[in-house]
Amino acid sequence: MQEEDLIERIHTDDPRAFKDLFDSNVTLVHNVCFRMLGDRQDAEDVTQEVFFEAYKSLKRFRFESKLSTWLYRIAVNRSLNHQRKRKLERWLSLDFEASEDRAQNMAFHGTAADAPDSMVEKKDTERIVQEAIGKLPKRQRTALLLHRYDDLPYQEIAKIMDVTVASVESLLHRAKQTLAKNLFSLKKEL
Amino acid sequence: MTHTEIQQQLLLYLDSELPDKDMHQIREHLSTCADCAQRRDELASVWQSESRLEKVKPSLFLWTRLQARIKEYEQTPAFVWDLKKILQAIPAHPLPAVGVIAAIVVGIYIGTPRESQKYGHRQPANRSSAAVDELGLDQFDVIPPGALGTTLVKISNTRK
């Protein structure tokens, strides 16, 4: 389905249009949120926030970017806000024992116990990568997640993060250098 | 390039994101350095794993929850909705934070010297002013010799 058609239907108050938009983008948005937050429940809450925000602002959408880029942008911003809010809440409730950053402690795709050996190994490997990514600075992490897991071109990442393409290149370059170091040290710990 | 520099560039090398000259230099180095080559293989196994392509499925109830929220939004007047948003921004467990802030305020209050402690060294001057008042003098008048001492003693005795 063409994005323009979908938006047109939303503008003409077609009751099915928003559900169609939700169905075709919910996996994308949910996965972005999950990778940024590292927690299924938080990811679901933020996914709901993203679509709610989209619902409220859709009538103002002017096709200056792709619909998916716009949703990515809301998802990234909402996830970062959610992370900040969680940190503040932990600080206010003096819950310093809780993990400092859930993104550093990801339970990727459920528990290892319910998977066969080869799957466990794959999950462990991915967990190591995600843990290392979670230790990166916020902007480097965002750029790398969009690049690695969504295969987005630099131009689109730049639009989502509201930076230049050169900045994205630089962020990814630095992210991969730091990540190589983090991955070695995490592998050593195992 | 040193071993450390090579190892730092390995992810960029694996993704072929380095200039040709650097790619060539690293390739040459890896063909002769067993340690760096082993690190390249380790990184490649982790970094190029296919599991990154797997997607997490959201809950089936997500649409139902969203629908309910949209319905509530549509039926709520704008100002009530804004008020709810403000209330939601207040943290769920503010008590410990309020406790810490109260402790800081009390600490600052206790730690701040009182007026009398702060200007303790000026007490004689204050007593002199009291003596000047007692004598009914203007602050610029010349104090009669002996009068100030006598009055000060008098005031001290009265305060005791």
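The longest helix of chain A spans residues 67-92.
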